[in-house]
Structures are given as structure tokens and as C-alpha cells.
């Protein structure tokens, strides 16, 4: 709508909206993390994330991403992304570029502005893959919480934390 209506500087407006939305999501993740007494790090970022591939998406592509530990950092190579596919299907390559340029960085900033996320490559232009880095990622630490916290996390996913703000 912004683009079609020739809204002045529509890309900056779109990026600002995505950034605000993502920082709010990251803040909700931080609130759940702190309620559980856990640190605001990448292990918690991965554990309390609000998005996952649907079973249908996983049937279509069983390995949409790969994770690699690189000297304390986590490198994530993403081979399939529903947002990229949707933006490209709608003919909005610039929308895909703008969304991905700010979304994950803002999610991380909402959780903890002192940890570092880097987007090294996006899949849109070449239709191949994205590369993301979570610096000092504490790879494997979230696994220690999984059995203990699984039921509580499911309860939190539907809980309204607006009273904490």
C-alpha cells in the first residue's frame, strides 16, 4: 500500500514499522526470560522465540536451516523462508530486503541491546540462502532447560505480559 500509493520514503516508513514491531516482540521474550530467572542471552533468545516453522513447511522442506558453532558464535544458514517466498511472490523484492535488514536485529535489541546479531547475507536477490550470526551465542545451553521448562513455556506462549511494561 505504501509503495503503490507512492508514499514519500515508503521504505524508511516500512523499516521503522518492522523495527518497532520486532523490538516489542523481543521485549516480550525478555519479560518471559526474566520471569524465569534466566539471563538475557542468545540461549534465551532461541528458547523464548515466538516463531517456528509450521509442520506443513517442515514437510515441504525438512531442513530449512542449518546451525554451525564457530568459535563461540552460532552461524545459521537459512535455506527456506516463508517471508522471503511471500514477498517475492507479491513482487516486493524491496519489501523482503527491508524486512530482513531490520527484523532480527530489532528482535535481539528488544531482548538485550548488549548482545550482537549480524546478518551477513539474504536470500532474496539470488534465491539461495541467508547467513546470520549470533555472537557469543552459548550454543547448546538452551537444551539444558528444555525438559524442565517445556510445559511452562507452552503456558507462557499464550500469556499476556502487558502488565509488566
By DSSP (H or I, 4+ residues per run), the number of helices equals 6
User: How many β-strands, per DSSP?
Assistant: 4
Q: Spatial order of the strands in the main sheet?
A: 1-2-4-3
CA radius of gyration: 17 Å
Q: Residue-averaged pLDDT, rounded? A: 82
Shape: globular
Helix content: 40-55%
Describe what is shown at a glance:
The chain is α+β, with helices and mostly antiparallel strands and 165 residues long. The protein contains 6 helices and 4 strands; from the N terminus they run αααββααββα.
Can you describe this structure?
- The chain is globular, with a radius of gyration of 17 Å.
- About 50% of the residues lie in helices and about 15% in strands.
- Strand 3 (about 115-120) and strand 4 form a beta hairpin.
- Residues about 145-155 have low confidence and may be disordered.
- The protein has helices at about 10-35, 40-45, 55-60, 80-90, 95-110, 145-155, and strands at about 65-70, 75-80, 115-120, 130-135.
- It has one domain.
- By secondary structure, it is of the alpha+beta class.
- A 4-stranded antiparallel sheet has the order 1-2-4-3, covered by helices on one side.
- Helix 1 (about 10-35) runs parallel beside helix 5 (about 95-110).
Amino acid at each position: 500500500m505504501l509503495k503503490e500509493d507512492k508514499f514519500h520514503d515508503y521504505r524508511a516508513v516500512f523499516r521503522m514499522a518492522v523495527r518497532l514491531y520486532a523490538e516489542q516482540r523481543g521485549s516480550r521474550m525478555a519479560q518471559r526470560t526474566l520471569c524465569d530467572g534466566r539471563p538475557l542471552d542468545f540461549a534465551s533468545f532461541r528458547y523464548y522465540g515466538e516463531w517456528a516453522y509450521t509442520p506443513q513447511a517442515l514437510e515441504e522442506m525438512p531442513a530449512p536451516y542449518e546451525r554451525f558453532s564457530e568459535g563461540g558464535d552460532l552461524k545459521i544458514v537459512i535455506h527456506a523462508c516463508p517471508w522471503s517466498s511471500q514477498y517475492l511472490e507479491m513482487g516486493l523484492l524491496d519489501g523482503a530486503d527491508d524486512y530482513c535488514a531490520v527484523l532480527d536485529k530489532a528482535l535481539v535489541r528488544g531482548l538485550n541491546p548488549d548482545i550482537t546479531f549480524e546478518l551477513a547475507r539474504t536470500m532474496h536477490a539470488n534465491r539461495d540462502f541467508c547467513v546470520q550470526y549470533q555472537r557469543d551465542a552459548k550454543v547448546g545451553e538452551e537444551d539444558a532447560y528444555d525438559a524442565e521448562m517445556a510445559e511452562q513455556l507452552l503456558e507462557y506462549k499464550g500469556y499476556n505480559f502487558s502488565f509488566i511494561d
